[in-house]
Fold each of these.
Amino acid sequence: MSKAGERKGHWSRRLRDSAVSRDAVAAPQGLLGGAERGEFVHTGAALNGAVEPGELVLEVEGLSVSGLPLYDVLSLVQNCRGAAIRAVFGALHPAAAHISVDAVDGTGPGL
């Protein structure tokens, strides 16, 4: 049996480590979502031409931000030194990261 990371279509093959402008990330519509909305933090606008809107933010400066509220991620970005930050982005649509309460309890229309 092959390892999950070796599969051709595995999501981990769509991760990208990029340097982006701290000001672009912290700008309105730079980042959206967050645990308080039941979503992973994702980009709301293109960042420096390197990152497309809708990509998930998985790490900022080596720290995992999966499952954090947006205000914690923005606070981390604001406290980074320098004009650019290193982040890991996943090319997944944020709708795939959203978990509906109906889907969790088994009463949702998709189940």
Amino acid sequence: MQSDLSFLKSKSYSGTKTDEAEAYLNTHRIPDIILSLTQSLLVERPANPKQHMDKNLQLMRSIRARNQNQVLFTRENLQALFRFFDHVGRGYISMSQYDEAMKTIGALKFNPKPSGYGKLIVTYLRFASHPVLIVGLDHITMEVFVEEA
């Protein structure tokens, strides 16, 4: 998750100071934290946003202490994201879709070969009363995606 720090390039900041400020913010992942908190607020829309952000900051500290991904999405949020990537409703997504979905939620460390990776699937569908054979690899199901996230 890379945030836009272009506001630092405005006339009120000098070049070296701007670079130092940007480096400081990036070193401490401040733009990522703010973006994650903002996304969580927009998705959850809590009655008490300050309390919600405080809870999520505590959760982030706990996750960081355990050296895990900082994913602040509910199971339902992750399932909705999966359905977005599986827009046709096949029940699985490709490895490239899995990678993109993980990047979308800000997962920095995720299993590069989840269950379903490299798995050959043969599917028969009916299209205009004709059977269609679909053969492919890398079929990651919703359950696998949610578990990995």
Amino acid sequence: MRAAWPCAVCGAAGAAKYRCPRCAAAYCSVPCCRAHKERCTPEPERERSAAGEAFPGGANRAGQHADSPWSVEDILTEDDEQDRVPLQKLKLLGESEELRGLLLNPHLRQLLLTVDQAEDKSSLMKKYMQEPLFVEFADCCLRIVEPPEKENILPE
């Protein structure tokens, strides 16, 4: 179990569940995240990592770079741990021709970009799950990382 950190914004002891990817400051909530984001001054090395220059090839098994003090474990809570997808399965997404075909659609790419940049990703995801194209994308991803079990199939 990870040590609980005090929130760098409001000071709540042991409440911080999240870390800033730019400077590794710990915070406890969306309001604290927003407040921190307004005054965040990242270290130059961390800024490069946050921009993605080192991430694709430079992370270790914990999702941490050799020159970075934060890891995937820093931003996931214990409740989120059960939803983590192993790296091997994530790589299967990049190999899927069906998924590549879906990502050629400019409307889907715009939806994904909007979700990525949104402050309230959760409510936007709920809204987009009403879009057939987005549902098709989500279903395709799930079929790849969690193939359906063959429990109710009768042999012919």
